[in-house]
Write a structure and sequence with these properties.
This protein is an alpha/beta fold and about 200 residues long. Helices cover about 50% and strands about 15% of the residues.
């Protein structure tokens, strides 16, 4: 019996990819995840996430990471289909891992509807969709760590070249970076999501 957890990192960010990760394990191995100290990635320090990431990769029966670039995100936002895009990539991850049951973190206000959407596309086992699945199920916590560490690596690479802060709209450093870039270069960097409201406001 293979159990899979799926979660995302970077959905609300102004820049960089949206990363979806899946981790699959035999049911008998799941209990050990808690004793490793695995929990929702938001409750861990970056150093703890890095350390646990390595343990998860070694311990998992399988895992898969999908990255959605800003251009693809922008296209979906224009069509008001960001939730569908996320469901599509979660389905892609599940189809790759072929588990018997998958637990997914729902971005839809209706988790049941979201689960059905993924089920239609993944065609692999049962889908269990919940809000806050990353804090309710340790297998989803493991997926949240894998997604977060991979996204952080991408942002760290960008930071070597640009002083862009955390990448989130609530970060003044990020907003200032994008604003100055647009003013100076008269264009938007390819790693920035053009459809996000703060960027649209800057363009106006």
């Amino acid at each position: 019996m293979l159990i899979c957890g799926v979660d995302e990192a970077g959905r609300g960010s102004l820049l960089g990819p949206l990363v979806i990760a899946g981790v699959s394990l035999k049911r008998s191995k799941i209990r050990k995840l808690s004793s490793m100290g695995i929990r929702d990635s938001k409750k861990l320090t970056p150093a703890a996430r890095e350390r646990l990431y390595k343990k998860i990769i070694e311990y998992a029966d399988d895992y898969y990471i999908a990255r959605i670039n800003p251009k693809t995100i922008d296209r979906s936002v224009k069509k008001h289909q960001l939730n569908f895009l996320e469901a599509k990539y979660m389905a892609k991850v599940i189809a790759k891992l072929k588990p018997n049951i998958s637990y997914v973190d729902s971005c839809d206000v209706n988790p049941k509807r979201y689960g059905k959407e993924i089920n239609k596309m993944a065609k692999s086992g049962k889908i269990r969709s919940y809000h806050h699945a990353d804090s309710r199920f340790v297998i989803v916590s493991a997926a949240s760590i894998v997604a977060k560490v991979n996204r952080d690596k991408t942002i760290a690479k960008l930071r070597k070249k640009y002083d862009l802060g955390s990448g989130y709209p609530s970060d003044k450093k990020t907003i200032n970076f994008v604003s100055k870039y647009i003013s100076n270069k008269k264009e938007i960097p390819s790693f920035v999501r053009k459809s996000w409201k703060p960027v649209q406001a800057m363009l106006k």
